[in-house]
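Two folds, back to back.
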Amino acid sequence: MDIYVGNLPYSVTGEDLRDLFSKFGEVADAKVISDKYSGKSKGFGFVQMNDNSNAEQAIESLNDSDLQGRNIKVNQARPKENTDRSRRER
């Protein structure tokens, strides 16, 4: 299951997310999304866990919890929507 983690402190790394979520089971991948130009965190990331029950437990336990002074938002990631930029530019 892919998990969205939002409202992250800008200092949080993918390793920090991996450590946080590994308390609930095996983490297949954890990454913080960064700006492609500046390289700075955008304040959100994604965690992938293969066991759905562990993932659901992590979501339930971590949503609205404090991480380095910020209440993080944790929920199941939605599929990325396809956007057609050429339509918006017309």
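---
second:
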Amino acid sequence: MTIRRLVLDVLKPIKGESIVDLAEKLSSLRGVEGVNISVTDMDVETMGLMVIVEGDGVDFEAVKNVLEESGAAIHSIDEVASGKKLVSSVKKRD
């Protein structure tokens, strides 16, 4: 299966690598063409992140390893896109 997009809900300690450093590490992985990291919430010790990784052959295990090496934990996999082309996301109704 060729993964083209991953959207991950991630929890990362405040101390340690910045999200800039994390984005650079993720974007240097083979098959990754773009990375977007947004802070979704923050408290004294941790920050919640939405991590979006896109490319022509994203290796989930490599992404997971980079995140874990930075002390982050994946809370959930919120979206996976696979196949020959990206399909636009459909927003859920409230």
